[in-house]
Amino acid sequence: MGGDPDSIAFFEAVGLDYVSCSPFRVPVARLAAAQAALAHRKENAAA
Fold first, then answer.
1. Torsion of CA 16, 17, 23, 28, to 10 degrees
2. DSSP class of 33
3. Which of 4, 16, 44, 46 has the CB geometry, 3.0–4.6 Å to 11, for a possible disulfide?
4. What residue ranges do the domains of the chain occupy?
5. Contacts of 41 (CB under 8 A, 6+ apart)
6. Geometric angle at alpha carbon 16, from 14 and 17, rounded to 5°
7. Is the pLDDT of residue 47 over 80?
């Protein structure tokens, strides 16, 4: 489940900075991690 975008968003929210996934899911996982980090940053800036 490490490459699942919903899982990555959750991991970002709880402060984890590492996930493990199959090599085929790495591109999707990287994109999801970037999106989650930007969303988290936006939420913190609004607070």
1. 80
2. H
3. 16
4. 5-46
5. none
6. 145
7. no
- Segment 14-44, tens digit of pLDDT: 999 888 999 999 999 999 999 999 998 898 8
Q: How far apart are CA 46 and CA 33, in angstroms?
A: 20
25: DSSP letter: G
φ/ψ bin of 5: left (φ > 0), alpha (ψ from -120 to 50), beta (otherwise):
alpha
Residue 31: both structure tokens together:
């994109």
pTM of the model: 0.80
pLDDT of residue 36: 92
Q: Tell which phi-psi region holds residue 17, choosing left (phi > 0), alpha (psi between -120 and 50) or beta.
A: alpha
Tracing tokens 């990555």 back to the chain, one arrives at: 8
